[in-house]
Amino acid sequence: METPENAFTTSLGLVRWIGWAQRKAGEDWIRARDLSHEQAFVLGFLVQNPGAIQRDIAQMTRTSAASVSSLLQGLERRELVERRTDPENERSKRVYATSAGAELIAGFDAAMVAADETILAPLNEAERAALLQLLQKITAELPQPTR
Question: How many Å apart are CA 69 and CA 77, to the nearest integer?
């Protein structure tokens, strides 16, 4: 599919371009750690929610339990997560990021702040404030994103 010539000349086309640059920075950071987007997302979720059950992970990732099981097996082979039997329910397994898993994704937020700074570098403080004000005016009329 070809990109229309004016795709990046309209206001919203340029906003999409900025979003693409942010996403690419995140993907590059994740890829440098030999992770898929989904693996990095699950590791981040487990760092913030230690002891989650697979159903919680499936719900958060909007995928099936079978897909989560396969993803966790790959992370387990790399010793980035571990599943432990729940002492209160022998049939239930809780999932935890290992210290190696938490270390691997540590710094993602800082990397994204740095990417944002790079994207906004051409703007001075007044221009950044004006951009923020305009974007807040637009987004005030939109439904908030979920997740």
Answer: 12
3-state DSSP: the chain helix, strand, coil percent, rounded to 5?
A: 60, 10, 30
Q: How far apart are CA 67 and CA 146, in angstroms?
A: 22
- Report pTM: 0.79
- DSSP string of 33-69, one letter each residue: TT--HHHHHHHHHHHHSTTB-HHHHHHHHTS-HHHHH
Is residue 22 within 8 A of residue 112, CB to CB? The reply is yes
pLDDT tens for the chain, 147 residues: list them. Answer: 556 666 678 999 999 999 999 999 999 999 999 999 999 999 999 999 999 999 999 998 888 888 999 999 999 999 999 999 988 888 888 999 999 999 999 999 999 999 999 999 999 999 999 999 999 999 999 999 876
Is the separation of the CB atoms in 55 and 65 below 8 Å?
Answer: yes
